[in-house]
TrEMBL record:
<keyword id="KW-0238">DNA-binding</keyword>
<dbReference type="Pfam" id="PF01420">
    <property type="entry name" value="Methylase_S"/>
</dbReference>
<feature type="coiled-coil region">
    <location>
        <begin position="184"/>
        <end position="211"/>
    </location>
</feature>
<dbReference type="InterPro" id="IPR000055">
    <property type="entry name" value="Restrct_endonuc_typeI_TRD"/>
</dbReference>
<comment type="similarity">
    <text>Belongs to the type-I restriction system S methylase family.</text>
</comment>
<protein>
    <submittedName>
        <fullName>Restriction endonuclease subunit S</fullName>
    </submittedName>
</protein>
<dbReference type="GO" id="GO:0009307">
    <property type="term" value="P:DNA restriction-modification system"/>
</dbReference>
<dbReference type="GO" id="GO:0003677">
    <property type="term" value="F:DNA binding"/>
</dbReference>
<dbReference type="InterPro" id="IPR044946">
    <property type="entry name" value="Restrct_endonuc_typeI_TRD_sf"/>
</dbReference>
<keyword id="KW-0680">Restriction system</keyword>
<keyword id="KW-0378">Hydrolase</keyword>
<feature type="domain" description="Type I restriction modification DNA specificity">
    <location>
        <begin position="25"/>
        <end position="191"/>
    </location>
</feature>
<dbReference type="InterPro" id="IPR052021">
    <property type="entry name" value="Type-I_RS_S_subunit"/>
</dbReference>
<keyword id="KW-0175">Coiled coil</keyword>
<dbReference type="GO" id="GO:0004519">
    <property type="term" value="F:endonuclease activity"/>
</dbReference>
<keyword id="KW-0255">Endonuclease</keyword>
<feature type="domain" description="Type I restriction modification DNA specificity">
    <location>
        <begin position="218"/>
        <end position="387"/>
    </location>
</feature>
Amino acid sequence: MVCVFKNGNRFCNGFKIYKRVDMSWKYVKLGTVCNTGAGGTPLKSKKEYYENGTIPWLRSGEVNNRNIIDSEIKITEKGLNNSSAKLFPTGTVLIAMYGATAGQVGILNFESSTNQAVCGVLPSENFATEFLYYFFLSFKDELISQAVGNAQPNISQAKIRNTLIPLIPLQEQQQIVAILDEAFEAIDQAIANIEKNIANAQELFQSKLNEIFSQRGEGWEICLLNEICEVKDGTHDSPKYVSEDNGIPFVTQKNILEDGLSFVDNKFISLDDHENFYRRSNVTENDLLFSMIGANRGMVCIVDDGRTFSIKNVGLIKSSENYRSKYLLYFLKSPIARNYVSDNSSGSAQGFIGLGKLRAFPIPMTTLDRQKSIEIIIDSLNDNVTQIIYAYQMKINSLEELKKSILQKAFAGKLTNKMVESLQLAAEPEERY
């Protein structure tokens, strides 16, 4: 089916396209001019399908860059031949169809198989590979809006095949690609410089923490954590989960974030299990929670929420009249403390710091008045750094929106080299603090 738009309508035979289109462009269903396919997953129970495999096998989460250069997992010839997985050639445009990564696009730089959550648009004489890539990048939000499911969007291969795409001469496609390459290179460089500035601001904050907590001399002493307060840990059991309506929140290390305690996506346990665990670790407001396992071990937060909950794989540092909670929080966020956690963690796959090491944590202690003064200094510094990072993040967000705007103009036939030059994307200067 070929459609020539002459009246600016957004629909052709029921298929939605952009509000602004070039009236001279012809639009066709992708499936009529390109071959597509989806992959499959060899049985995980069959070791011979994976052990010593040499054939790349991509999952949807790996489809997140323009150029895909490798796969984390390899499968064997047996795995390929005894599953619905298939090999896609170099130059295939891959589109993630399921879950949190739905709509992400990439270009395959090597021959590879994929799982069933990835759609491959094979190379075609009708389209430049990079043109297809940019088109589906521009169409990402539209595809997701049509996806089935809320928490885990599902884009069907049929929707991808039914997508209307402009069928224009290869020379014009290459001109559009060249313009987009130039614009995106400038934007990406600006974003990279902003990210450096964010890293510099964070580095300043960490260096100040080191400076403050390295003080020694009169009025300072090093104490072990269990000398100034009670230190416990949560259960290491895995209880039966219940519904939110009938349960008590069950907090694990995943709920301890850089900016505090989060109850998003936490599980729930029965009241009986909670009462059993609570006898071991009675969490109350103003206590500190310390992640003991996983990639975020050493992450710490103050309990500032009055709700009742139980903990697992989390250290519990009870509040005490010997220290100010926020002072201890800032110290445990410092590079000094994080180095201690790294040096005293087990070498398991997830990494774990035991209760004994947590209790033996060396803490620089001083008077409560001085602790309060230090809190005020760090609060002020933290506020300043947070404001700086927020401002930079807003700039990044604006640049990402600019990308979307440029893509829309490109595929509405409205983008020219002159327009890209007028963007005046001066590189964000690197700032040292």
